[in-house]
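Troubleshooting log. The previous structure file for this entry was overwritten by mistake, so regenerating from the original sequence record. Sequence copied from the archived sheet and checked twice against the printout by T.R.
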Amino acid sequence: MTDQQDQYWMRYALQLAQRAWQAGEVPVGAVLVHDDRIIGEGWNRPIGQHDPTAHAEIMALRQGGQALQNYRLLDATLYVTLEPCTMCAGAMVHSRIGRLVFGANDEKTGAAGSLLNVLGHPGMNHQVQVSSGILAQECAALLSDFFRMRREQKKARRSAPL
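Regenerated output below.
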């Protein structure tokens, strides 16, 4: 994949992240690409679906499995706006995706190199190629804006007269 292709798909993932924001979820979007076509997409939905596993990456991987009629997603690339957590990284290893491309690092829970490196751990039976920092500023800004808005809403509720 070229840098231009990576940016194209990351922009698509950012649009999906906006859908999460509109639903009041943490704005993370993911798109799964195989042979230059979308086979899965998702955005964070754990709050609305009452499902702790409803992360953008998991949603995209589930759709990809259905599209290919296989739980092995060989040669697929997952584009996600935020570095995946351990759950999502584990699912990527189990699905055998070829490549992960993510935007913003997640120093608190990132499992693709920031906090842990599940995808590159030598003990894993599958290694996922990782490219990071694609449209990182845009991805990080979306998250920062969302959490800033949340803090302002919380502050407004506390100072509102009863």
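The first strand starts at residue 29 and ends at 34. Archived copy saved in two places this time.
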